[in-house]
Design a protein that fits this description.
Number of helices: 4
Order of helices and strands: EEHEHEHEH
Helix content: 25-40%
Structural class: alpha+beta
Radius of gyration: 18 Å
Largest sheet: 3 strands, antiparallel
Strand order of the largest sheet: 2-1-3
Strand content: 5-15%
Distance between the termini: 11 Å
Mean pLDDT: 86
Number of strands: 5
Amino acid sequence: MIRYALKCDQAHAFEAWFGSSTDYDDQAARGLVECPFCGSHAVEKAIMAPAVNGARKADPASDVAAKMQTMMMAAAREVRAHVEANFDYVGDAFAREARDIHEGRSEKREIYGEATPAEVKKLKDDGVPVSALPAAPVDPAKVN
């Protein structure tokens, strides 16, 4: 496994794990690497310092970063659970239904579902308020 620091064209910084550097290259070329903040597929590797194990004591800043990551993952889980419990799932009809609600052709309600990056861009260009739902965080107990 290899961890990359990544950034999108909207300057969002995030990390992702890949089986190998060729896995990243392949997935990026096929448009499968996506910013978790805005959904952009214009993602590139960012400068990253290598992780080197040494005899020094742990850096307190890395403890803060680990706590921050844990807190952010918990918040993502809470947001996703709230949406799943309180919003209507409309599947791959999301773009059509969001537009219908926005234009008053359908009852106003909170929805979530699936949309292609092109559909999301078109909705945003047309002033339809949409946002990416945080991905379901991986349960560390279930990772091989």
